[in-house]
UniProtKB/TrEMBL annotation:
InterPro entries: GH (IPR017853), Gly_Hdrlase_35_cat (IPR031330), Glycoside_Hdrlase_35 (IPR001944). The keyword Nucleotide-binding does not apply. One of its GO terms (biological process) is carbohydrate metabolic process. Belongs to the glycosyl hydrolase 35 family. It holds the Pfam family Glyco_hydro_35. Keywords: Signal. The lineage of its organism: Eukaryota, Metazoa, Spiralia, Gnathifera, Rotifera. Residues 1-19 form the signal peptide. Gene3D superfamilies: Glycosidases. This is Glycoside hydrolase 35 catalytic domain-containing protein. One of its GO terms (molecular function) is hydrolase activity, hydrolyzing O-glycosyl compounds. Residues 58-101 form the Glycoside hydrolase 35 catalytic domain. The keyword Disulfide bond does not apply.
């Protein structure tokens, strides 16, 4: 029974090592290769999810609109709750900010 547990722990550890995402610390100050396969961005051959954000301190806020949140079914639109784009634009206007909207997300083919 102990052997099975040891094998499980070893396989789990090896799986983590092989599939763990690459971080910037892994490539800092060295040349690295960025590519894309049919599933993900790859850095030095390792599939990696890039997560980013920006805070702008001037007079404009730039943000992404995840369109697949607003149109989950063909021609059925949702702008309520956390998808309330009008409220976001009003809040930015109240704060005296310009808004630069970018669309992002799946464009569905129904």
């Amino acid at each position: 029974m102990h052997w099975l547990l040891l094998i499980y722990v070893c396989l789990s550890f090896l799986t983590y090592i092989v599939t763990s995402p690459i971080t910037y610390e892994n490539v800092r100050d060295t040349p690295y290769n960025v590519s894309y396969d049919h599933r993900a961005v790859k850095i030095n051959g390792v599939r990696t999810m890039l997560i980013s954000g920006a805070i702008h301190c001037l007079n404009t806020i730039q943000t992404l609109i995840f369109w697949n949140l607003h149109e989950q079914k063909a021609n059925v639109f949702n702008f309520s709750g956390r998808a309330n784009l009008s409220q976001f634009l009003q809040d930015a206007d109240d704060a005296g900010l310009f808004v630069n909207l970018l669309t992002y997300g799946s464009i569905y083919m129904w």
